[in-house]
Amino acid sequence: MRDTRESRLLLVLLIAIAFALITVDIRGGEDSPVDGARQGAATVFGPIENGVSAAVDPVGDAVSAVRDSGERHDRLAVLEEENAALKARLGSDDRSRSRLKQLDKMLKMSGQGQYGIKGAEVIAIGAAQGFSWTITIDVGANDGIKRDMTVLNGDGLVGRVTTVGPNTATVLLASDPDFTVGTRMEASDELGFASGQGDRPLRVELLNGKAEVKKGDRLVTFGSQADRPFVPGVPVGVVSRVDPSGGGLTRTLYVTPYAAFSKLDIVGVVVEAPKKDPRDTVLPPKPKPTPRPTVTVTVTPSAEAPADGQNQQEQ
Fold it and tell me: Global pTM?
């Protein structure tokens, strides 16, 4: 449009009309006379906006994923440095070499399950306090530890954090009678709940009363909502006894835990849950059956005894 007197008057007129419509719309509220026009514009331009949003969202998701990945990588890098410092602190004598093996085994497990863990030492046990099965570890709130975090070691599930101080935390062991964790059977995926029984095997109630279970079957943690207090896939134990099925709603199993609760030393607190359920990948390799030697007995026939008549002649 050319810059003429008429074009300038038209521009001023359009601006005046726009201000007038804005004023009428504001004063009209929900009964605004221009509401119909607004809805018509939404009908026309809405699909276009959705299309643009759909095109932009994957880009935003990708940027978010890269950012989250970077944050997770930074967090894991910090944990690796802290665990390396723990290794250095353990020293190199015979006892320390044993503890280093425990730490290495635990770190291997965390790598398989993609758990971000904070290594810790057990500094006290609390079995004498109220008959509870607890331990105290040397990490706390200052180390990023929070209540209801999963605790494991190189063998499997140890327990969950119940109390957190600045530099220490209390862990309720899976053997405690007040402890309960959701479990999943390897391969069959049968779900249940495991409860502690002190120094006896864990008691597991399967939700399926007709589930096919046998001695030697293995269980892992099922996981909790938002991964608190339990992350999924942590080895729990091996079935040692199965109660006969009585046609009830549940079925009772007894499970020997992987972790030895009476001799805990190096443990790890899961401060970073895995991005996806590791399923059965963290379970240890199944033991190979020991071949039984076969003993073959060969019977050698003895010399025939002489006839009675010959014996009498010789006499």
Answer: 0.65
